[in-house]
Specification:
Largest sheet: 4 strands, mixed
Low-confidence stretches: 1-8
CATH class of the largest domain: Mainly Alpha
Oligomer: single chain
Helix content: 55-70%
Number of strands: 8
CATH architecture of the largest domain: Orthogonal Bundle
Order of helices and strands: HHHHHHEHEEHHHHEHHHHHHEHHEEEHHH
Strand content: 5-15%
Length: about 525
């Protein structure tokens, strides 16, 4: 009141009070000085929102009584909160904890970002852009979604606009993605940024991840249930077996570090990359070679089955905090294979996996990375030359080391089945080779003679079309960068993207032109 009176000295305190419905004072006496005839009554059923929330860490545990819950759970260790209310809530809880309990209520605060829609807008009822997690889990049809978004609006005049936007962005409603896919999505989005743009494309990708894990588990169960999985006796493990076990232990370390540092995104990425790109894309395929090989020993197959089921079981425990439902369901089937007791039939009671440094095998990792690189090189040649997947390829290897010779002998079956090779022939250094497509794996040259594999005329026509397509794209990108208005007005990021596109088109053209020269040099 004094500040208001000083700001407008023409009005007395009494005149100012007459203009106001409410006022603020430090205590009752100060109010009575301003308005002597006022009757003050304290409301006996109201506790200020911020004050009550500040008491939350101990008032919910029975305080002020010295309850067992209070002794057990105060103080706790971590508080999870959004960045937008850190002072209003977190600071007050800290201060009230020190005042009434003599200790802070928590030692660490995990501050997460604000979930926004795909366009970066804050989700709100008035904008009609809220995504209900239950709709993402169970799915919802378009009409029900529209009705949900336009009902109970604070601004009813926005209903038509909200309906149009909903029909545009969700023309078929929202499919059911499941709880696990949603949880994994949010973990992967938990970066250090303040904003999280939620896009249905991300959750769809993680639903595919859950399906990938489910299908992998079906394959493992099909090949291990009722089989000898090496629970007793000495095991014969191949380089592939030792490699996947080694990689799993390295990933466990990465996940542990991610959780310790509250980088749930990095933990999720480590799990995703291992499951999709190493365990499923490579190890399961490598295991098929052993399990279907009539010449493979019983011990080799036993070692592979042991590795399949043990890696899956540890992987399920590793993934459980992020995707609890699918991991529980699969673990129920996996546990009996490993001889788990009936009393332990839930993954929730199992210890979280810990890395085993002694299981990390650098030699096996180096060998299998080389094998996968060579297979990848052969597949690249097949793809770029448009050679049918069913066509077995003669492969020449040049400039290889003695170690690479040993690796090739040890893993020849993998190349035959996974790269579809007809033959593998080492070429002496400096020896002449027929006109071939070539890929490098370190210093090793992977060569595929093209003479009998392709239709020269058809391949030249195909390459010419590809070259013309890239030339047009390159010209467009160069013209954009030559336009001074575009360079001056476009965001720096967009300009850099265009420069990157030019480099990519130039590299692709150079490769295609080299391929055309190789094909043109072929006889016939």
């Amino acid at each position: 009141m004094q500040a208001l009176a000083q700001a407008n000295s023409k009005l007395s305190d009494k005149e100012l009070l007459a203009l106001m419905d409410d006022w603020i004072a430090k205590n009752r006496d100060e109010v009575r000085e301003l308005k002597r005839d006022i009757v003050l009554t304290q409301d006996n059923d109201v506790l200020d929102t911020w004050f009550s929330s500040a008491l939350w860490p101990f008032s919910t545990l029975g305080w002020p009584e010295p309850t067992a819950a209070l002794k057990t759970f105060y103080p706790t260790s971590v508080l999870v909160t959004g960045f937008d209310i850190i002072f209003f809530w977190v600071a007050r809880m800290m201060m009230m904890g020190l005042k009434f309990m003599g200790d802070v209520p928590f030692r660490e605060v995990y501050i997460h970002g604000l979930v926004r829609d795909a366009e970066g807008q804050k989700m709100s009822k008035s904008k009609g852009n809220i995504l209900d997690p239950l709709d993402l889990i169970d799915g919802i049809d378009l009409e029900a979604l529209v009705q949900k978004r336009v009902s109970g609006l604070m601004q009813p005049q926005m209903a038509k606009k909200i309906e149009q936007a909903t029909r545009k962005h969700f023309p078929h409603g929202i499919p059911a993605y499941g709880t696990d896919a949603l949880r994994f999505t949010f973990a992967s989005l938990a970066t250090q940024g303040r904003d999280i743009k939620f896009d249905l494309g991300r959750i769809e990708g993680y639903r595919n991840f859950c399906n990938k894990l489910w299908n992998a588990a079906r394959y493992v169960l099909m090949n291990t249930e009722g089989q000898d999985v090496g629970l007793a006796g000495k095991l014969e493990l191949s380089a592939a077996d030792r490699w996947i076990v080694s990689r799993l232990n390295q990933v466990i370390t990465d996940v542990e570090n991610g959780f310790r540092e509250y980088r749930f995104d990095l933990a999720a990425q480590a799990m995703y990359g291992f499951v999709w790109h190493e365990y499923c894309d490579w190890y399961l395929e490598l295991s098929k070679v052993v399990l279907t090989d009539g010449n493979a020993s019983a011990d080799a197959k036993r070692g592979t089955r042991h590795t399949l089921v043990n890696v899956l079981e540890r992987l399920l425990r590793l993934l459980h905090p992020l995707i609890p439902f699918i991991t529980e369901e699969v673990w129920q089937r996996v546990a009996p294979i490993l001889g788990e007791d009936e009393g332990k039939q839930t993954i929730m009671l199992q210890p979280y996996p810990e890395a085993e440094p002694e299981a990390i095998d650098a030699a096996a990792t180096e060998e299998m990375q080389w094998v996968m690189s060579v297979i990848g090189a052969i597949r690249t040649i097949r793809s770029e030359r448009d050679i049918a997947p069913s066509k077995a390829l003669p492969v020449l290897l040049a400039e290889g080391s003695e170690q690479e010779h040993r690796w090739m002998r040890n893993n020849e079956n993998y190349f035959k089945l996974l790269a579809r090779t007809e033959s593998l022939t080492w070429v002496k250094s400096g020896a002449a080779t027929p006109e071939s497509a070539m890929e490098l794996v370190g210093k090793l040259k992977v060569l595929v003679p093209l003479g009998s594999l392709i239709d020269k005329k058809a391949e030249l026509e195909r390459l010419q079309k590809e070259i013309e397509k890239y030339q047009k794209e390159l010209e467009k990108a160069r013209n954009k960068l030559a336009n001074q208005d575009f360079v001056a007005r476009a965001p720096a990021q967009v300009v850099e993207q265009e420069k990157t596109r030019v480099q990519q088109f130039e590299q692709a053209l150079a490769k295609l032109q080299t391929q055309r020269e190789q094909v043109a040099a072929l006889s016939g």
